[in-house]
Amino acid sequence: MKVITWNVNSVRARLPHVELFLKEQQPDVLLLQELKCEEHAFPASLLDFGYNCALFGQKTYNGVAILSKHPIEDIQNGIPNFEDTAARYVEAFTGGVRVASVYVPNGQEIDSKAYHYKLDFLNALYSHCKTLLGFDERLVIGGDFNIAPSDEDVCNPAAWQGQVLCSQLERDAWRKITYLGLADAVKDSTTGAMPYTWWDYRKGAFAKDDGLRIDHLLLSPNAADALKTTKVHKNMRGLERASDHAPVECVLTI
DNA sequence: ATGGTAGACGATCTA
User: Fold this and answer.
1) Which window residues (113-152, chain A) lie with Cβ within 7 Å of strand B?
2) Are A180 and A41 in contact (CB under 8 A)?
3) Which residues from the 3-62 window of protein chain A have CB within 7 angstroms of nucleic acid chain B?
């Protein structure tokens, strides 16, 4: 089973890329973030590729979805027990796996209101992950976490020292979630340099490979036992009018 | 302390 997560930065602006990607990669499950549209505005053509969809949309900002070749059941919009006006989390059971598409808040500036909202969101995600792990299912949580877990995940750590995406409190929150027993699929299957998943549109960051690894796939023990390969589809970031994020893939032997 | 780019949207806001 192939599961891929991708922050598309507007699904309508990225329609040709997403269509191309579905055709070429045929993922079983595609977890999307930053749709930037409501459900009625989601491009129907994407479902013509043979996908079912669980969609938690929002106008202008945020919006997350699960596309799956398999039937989708047990859909949950938003993190349970967390008040949030933003559409940043959708979860469902499909093809024998529980999957979630998560778009963690960016945080804007250290100590800003947005930063504390990010930490609150991560704390709620931690609590919910603890609940989900109690189900003892195969679980894949994919998304844009807006956290580079360590300096190995940053091309230029000095420039990002203490900044949002790299601050200690964010990394502490990440560590707390993974220490529940969730595997960082890409890290665990990578030898040598970590692949980046996001490159800023500004200052020619992609051309310089000045990126960060902030999009992740977290696997429960049952899913991690089945992990075969991972891959970052960096080529998608190099296209004209690309999202600033590349798709991140894992293949499970189930 | 701001800039650089992108997207939605129609002046700024988020990233």
Assistant:
1) 114, 146
2) no
3) 9-10, 12-13, 36, 59-62
Question: What is the C-alpha separation between A245 and A9, in angstroms, rounded?
Answer: 8
**Record: fold of A2-252:** Deoxyribonuclease I; Chain A (3.60.10)
User: Which pTM value belongs to this model?
Assistant: 0.98
Amino acid (one-letter) located at A237: R
Residue ranges per structural domain of chain A: 2-252
Dihedral sign computed on CA atoms, order A182, A156, A165, A175 = positive
Tens digit of each residue's pLDDT (9 = 90 or more) over A203-222: 999 999 999 999 999 999 99
CA dihedral A248, A140, A171, A228 (to 10 degrees): -60
User: Can you read off the two tokens belonging to residue A3?
Assistant: 């599961």
In single-letter form, the type of residue at position A236 comes to M
